[in-house]
Design goal:
Blueprint lengths: L2 H7 L5 H19 L2 H15 L4 H10 L6 E11 L5 E11 L2 E8 L16 H29 L8 H28 L50 H17 L4 H10 L7 E2 L2 E9 L10 E8 L5 H17 L5 H6 L1 H4 L11 E2 L5 E2 L6 H13 L8 E6 L6 E2 L4 E5 L2 E3 L1 H14 L3 E5 L7 H11 L4 E5 L5 H4 L10 E7 L6 H10 L2 E4 L10 H9 L3 E5 L4 H20 L2 E2 L9 H21 L1
Length: about 600
């Protein structure tokens, strides 16, 4: 009987019963409009035939597929302390999942403004200034996250990485241009009480009595060096961009039930993961003889081992540890170092540098007088174990030359008290590569302003040695949308995930250029997501530093875990070397190594 008929037959129906009947009719209409009865009937029929053991689990799985996709509800920023006790930023993403707000993932990235270890130099004032700037940057990042980013990303799809990163990059670009505009106005109208210092031009080398340059033969004069380009601005708060981008990528991987490396691989290929994936070849830092080392040598910021491609990562790290790190680190009194190569050191123990320590890059810090000494040390250690450098194991050198320029003199302080002009430095590299053919890559051998010397260096060593440039300090809001900065002869670039670098930026740069992903020099970040990122991006090489310090070993351990997962799944491919080696390069190297072996035999 209809409601109207029922009411006509029985006029004594209470108001409560009438309201309850109306409510039931509204509920029935609501369920019919959303197709609930049809879906219920369908799943119940399917379940009857399937007869699952877990009935409610079956229903839960069915209805979870019908639920609305998760959306970002809000972001949280937290102050944390990194592995060096420095203030850092952690970004968290919260999503609405099945009508409930849940914390999904968090991420921490490195900042390009790291406070480096100054064990051998008294720079406490500089360190305090850097700490203050870092605190200001973290506070600005927290403000960005809790105010602007929290609002503009609310309701966004966490699985739309490209869309989220575009919002983040557009936001950063607006702040970047706004800050630039403020700085330009301040330069045009500086406050009267704040004078604007003018950079002092490089002074000419001292003249001798004959009118020529001191120390130079003939009447040749050195050309003035190009002035330094303005340093790239590190915008306070920029670490919020990279941190949120990585946290969103982790969230997307979690929601799609994929490991992060497979999720990023799918983003890069715009399709499901390929059948095979490979682990990048690790560039392992062994020694640090740079500006912070106790000796006179400033040039070799990092001496890096490049293992042969095609080996399992665990095998590579075990070989590197037993061949180099254990002998070098086992005794801080240096008697093991002296027993490895007593002839090469040529000095008594009393005249050696101070006891070695571990650098921020996870390498042994040693002091030397000449660049040949650390290379001789590694060569001798290899030969003692029957591992000839240049046959399966090669070397790279991070020169970090931009930190060595003495602008008043217009020369590089390669060795304390022995400055060299850009042209003299090119000659030095040429001699070094000729003597040590196992050195197959130079990272930042010159300032980016010395374009003429880059071209000359490429012409003299480019056939046997790759020139690499670090572009980490260049804001990715620019470089990710343009080709990498052009320098003559450069074959690849070093890029770190820091500050405003988003996951989409990394995908774009690694697709368009030959890039080695690495960590910052002062890497204090213990988040191991970078290992997933490099595997997902499919890069050929990864630069994680030395086999020391927990922040770096967590990333190495994660790479080993990924390698084991891929091997178990039968999709582990072999890494291929596309950056440094070629058939012609190998022939020249074999010829050079054969020549050295002949010389050694004749000398004995």
């Amino acid at each position: 009987m209809s409601y109207k008929g029922f009411m006509n037959c029985n006029s004594r129906v209470s108001k409560e019963e009438q309201e309850f009947y109306d409510l039931k009719m509204k509920a029935a209409e609501y369920y019919r409009a959303n197709g609930v009865p049809q879906k219920m009937e369908g799943v119940l029929n399917d379940m009857f035939f399937d007869k699952p053991e877990d009935i409610y689990g079956y229903l839960a799985n069915y209805f979870s597929k019908l639920s609305s996709p998760p959306v970002i509800s809000r972001l949280l920023g937290k102050e944390i302390y990194d592995g060096k006790g420095q203030l850092s930023l952690q970004a968290q993403v919260l999503c609405i999942i099945k009508n409930e707000e849940k914390t999904t993932c968090s991420a921490v990235i490195s900042s390009h403004r790291e406070v480096l270890d100054n064990s051998f130099q008294d720079q406490s004032g500089v360190t305090n200034i850097n700490n203050d700037k870092r605190r200001d940057s973290v506070m600005a990042a927290l403000h960005w996250i809790h105010e602007s980013l929290n609002t503009i990303l609310k309701g966004s799809d966490p699985c739309d990485q490209t869309g989220v990163d575009k919002i983040l990059s557009d936001f950063f670009m607006a702040r970047y241009l706004e800050d630039q505009d403020i700085r330009n106005r301040e330069k045009e109208n500086p406050p009267p009480s704040v004078p604007v210092p003018e950079p002092s031009p490089p002074t000419a080398p001292p003249k001798d009595k004959k009118g020529g340059d001191k120390g130079k033969k003939g009447n040749s004069t050195e050309k003035p060096i190009p002035p330094p380009e303005p340093s790239e601005l590190v915008l306070p708060g920029s670490m919020a961009i990279g941190s949120v981008s990585l946290a969103v990528a982790k969230t997307g991987a979690l929601l799609q039930c994929l490991p992060l490396y497979k999720y990023i691989k799918a983003l890069r290929n715009q399709q499901p993961c390929p059948e095979e994936m490979h682990i990048p070849v690790p560039l392992v830092t062994l020694l640090s003889c740079g500006k912070m080392s106790p000796g006179k040598l400033n040039l070799l910021e990092e001496v890096i081992v490049i293992p042969k491609a095609g080996q399992r990562l665990k095998q590579v790290l075990t070989l590197t540890t037993t061949t180099y790190f254990q002998p070098l680190f086992s005794n801080f009194k240096l008697h093991i170092l002296f027993s490895i190569c007593p002839v090469l050191l040529g000095e008594s123990i009393k005249t050696q540098p101070v006891l070695p320590t571990v650098s921020d890059s996870g390498a042994l810090v040693v002091g030397y007088e000449r660049p040949e000494q650390p290379l001789d040390l590694i060569t001798e250690a290899s030969n003692n174990l029957g591992l000839a450098l240049g046959k399966g194991i090669h070397l790279a050198v991070n020169c970090a030359a931009h930190n060595l320029m003495d602008y008043p003199k217009g020369k590089y302080e390669v060795i304390t008290g022995t400055p060299k002009s850009p042209d003299e430095l090119v000659d030095m590299y040429e001699a070094l590569i000729s003597k040590y053919p196992a050195v197959v890559a130079l990272i930042d051998p010159l300032r980016k302003e010395d374009v003429e010397q880059w071209e000359r260096l490429s012409s003299v060593v480019g056939a046997s040695c790759s020139l690499l440039s670090d572009i980490s300090s260049k804001p990715q809001c620019h470089s990710s949308r343009e080709d990498a900065p052009s320098l003559p002869g450069v074959r690849g670039y070093i890029l770190n995930q820091s500050n405003e670098t988003t996951v989409t930026d990394l995908i774009h740069v690694t697709t368009e250029n030959k890039v080695i992903i690495g960590t910052t020099c002062g890497e204090p970040c213990s988040d191991d997501a970078l290992s997933d990122v490099v595997v997902g991006l499919g890069v050929g090489y990864v630069k994680l530093g030395g086999l020391s310090r927990g922040e770096r070993l967590t990333k190495y351990n994660r790479l080993i875990s990924i390698e084991e997962e891929l091997a178990q799944q039968g999709i582990l491919g072999m890494a291929f070397s596309s950056l440094v080696f070629s058939a012609g390069r190998k022939r020249r190297l074999d010829k050079a190594m054969g020549r050295r072996e002949t010389e050694e035999q004749s000398s004995t």
